[in-house]
Each structure stands twice: as C-alpha cells, then as structure tokens.
Amino acid sequence: MTEPPQTAEPTPPPGDPATGTAVDAPDRASPRDPAAGLPPQTPAAVRRRATLAGTAVSVLLILAIVLGSRLLRDFDSALLPYAVATVFLAFGVAYRYTVWISAPGARRLFRKGWGSFFSAANFRRAPTALPKMIATYLGFQKFLGARSHARWAAHQLVFWGCLLAAAITFPLTWGWFTFTSSTGSGPGYEMRIWGFKIIGFDSLSVLGWLMFHGLDIAAVLVISGAAYFLWRRMKDRGAVTGQRFAYDLVPLIALVVISVTGLLLTFSSIFLHGGGYEFLAILHMVSVVFTLIYIPFGKFFHIVQRPAALGMQLFKYTSRRKDEEVLACRRCHEPIDTAPYVENLQGTMRDLDLGFAEWAEYCPRCKRVLRGSAYLDHVKKGFK
C-alpha cells in the first residue's frame, strides 16, 4: 500500500502504535487538575451526591403517589409491595444515573446529548429531526436491524411488551388509574385518571376485553421476544462465549417468569375458578418486585441511558446540517466526520487521560493498519 509523503504526515499522536510512544500531551490539562476547572471527585463525594439525588427522587415519587391517588383514597393496599418496589426503583435509577454521569466520558455525553436534545436552535434548524430520531432510534431501534432482522424483531417484541406493561401497571399501582363499575355489578365500567372520568365502556365489548387483558397481551409479546433471546444464548456460539449469567440470563428469565405467572393468573381466574390464585399472585408479586429492584443495577439500566445517546445522534446530525467542516483522515485523507463531533470525541479521550486523543483523526481502516504495523514492528520482529 502506498503511503502519503512523510512531510505531509502530521506529528504522530501520543500513544501512536507506529512509534510506540505513550507520552501525555503537555499542553492539555488533566481533568483532575484544578487548572482544568474540574475539581477532583472522590468516590465518597460521588456516593453522597448520588444518595441525595436518589432520596430526592424517591420523595417526589411518594408525594406524586399520595397526591395522584387523591390522598390515598384511590390507592389499593393490595398493591403496596409493587408501589414500594417502584420507590426503590426510583431511588436506584437516580443513584446509578448520578454515579454514571460523574465519570468524565459519561458527563460529556450527558451534557452534549441533553444539550442537543433540548436545544431550541436545533429545533428551529431541523424541526422534524428529533421526532424522527425518537421514532427510529428509541422506538423502532432501526440500528439493530443492521445486525440481525431476527434480533431486531425479538427486541421489538420485548420493548413494546414491557412498555405496554409499564404504562398499565405503574399508574394502577400508584392509584392514578381506577376502574369502577358504573352499575354496581357490571358490565358497565368507568376508567378514571386522578379521579376524573376519562371513558366509559362495556366489559363485554372489544374495548372492554382490551382494557382488562392489556397485561396478557404484553405478556405474550415479552415471552415471544425473550424466548428467542434465550434460545440464541444457548445456541449462538458468539453469545455463549461472552455471556454472564447474572447480567445476560437473569433479566430474560425474570421477564419470562413475570409474563408466565401473569398469564397463569388469568388462566386461574377464567378456567380454574380461582384455583391456586393466591400462590400465583405471590409468585408474580415476588418476581415483579425483584425485577424492579434489579433494573438500576443490571442490564436493563441501558433503558435509562439510551436517551442521552439519542442526543448525541442529534448532535451529529445537526453538525452535518450546519455544513460544518468535515475532517479528513490524517493518513489516507478520507473524510471521517464533522469537526465538532471529532473534537467532542477528543475531549472525552482527554478527560479519560487515555493519552492518544489525536487517534480520533484517523479513519477506522487506518487505525487497523497502524495497529497491525505496530504489532509487526514491536512484537513479531522478536520471533524467528
């Protein structure tokens, strides 16, 4: 492969594998240096801030439950374990999120992502960009389709099933939704939100069936998607090699247990005249509570992180729309990305003290070539 003239090649970046150097750039302040404007964050300080954030969010949720249920008049005491679990969920999400954005790289992602997300200038420049990205990136997750259509379909089943279940379960648990019989014994019912009547329906109609079996529909969707992922993790060699039981398998098993026990509750009430209902209700409650508490500290936490990544996608999109300068690879001179995006990536690498931020100015192919050249020069030459 023909190399560009050495005179046109910029100074090799710190940590360039072609030279074997690993010297930090002297003109850049470390994020732990007070001169950089970022005071050091000790683990104890991060934990204190995370605990305060978790406590504040939990208190706000408790107040929302009390006020939304009209001072607990619409609150069902039988659902108390679920409500308590959601309070723990709120605390865990706020705690973990605060710890996450305390890291330099995540903090930059958080600022840039949410800054682009709520930017009025971006909305004026591209008013349809944000709705489209919410639909394609968060809703339909088209990026997963490039990897595998089957995985994309299974992920969609799990995603929309969980979203439907959460939209029904959380308001009911908090006492925000109530279903009361308008005639005393049915089949006419009224759905109320915060005490206000929204709609009246007949429980024997199609709408009534959908109202009372929404969780069953969600369970079928989740079981279908989770079953595919469990099958894949038993059969796919790549998935089996890197999987961890607590991180990869426990979430899927928990979703299946919740869905199956939920369907069995419906089966018991319709076909068994309530036989075994109490045991199934306890088993279902335990599985739901465990999963809600597990969410902030397991694989499901990516649900909370994903919106910040959406902001970064919007940041890249708006940078290209502004006709920003597109940087070229320092080696092959092929275009890489817009200057603001590359500079943001370099800033993150400097925040993490990686020592080779200028590597962001190389295209992926040239990075692989340089890594291979460094391996041949510094490792293989020692073998005969």
Q: Could you provide a short overview of the structure?
A:
This protein is mainly alpha-helical.
Give, in order, the helices and strands. Answer: HHHHHHHEEEHHHHHHEEHH
Q: Which structural category fits the helices and strands?
A: mainly alpha
- What proportion of the residues form beta strands (DSSP E)? 5-15%
pLDDT averaged over residues: 80
Largest sheet: 3 strands, antiparallel
Provide a descriptive summary of the structure in words:
By secondary structure, the chain is mainly alpha-helical. The chain has helices spanning 43-68, 80-100, 104-117, 120-125, 129-139, 142-145, 149-174, 206-212, 214-235, 237-242, 245-271, 277-294, 302-321, 339-351, 364-378, and strands at residues 177-181, 188-193, 196-202, 326-328, 335-338. The chain contains 15 helices and five strands. Strands 1-2-3 form a three-stranded antiparallel β-sheet. The chain has a two-stranded antiparallel sheet with strand order 4-5. Helix 3 (104-117) crosses helix 13. The model is unreliable at 1-37 (pLDDT under 50).
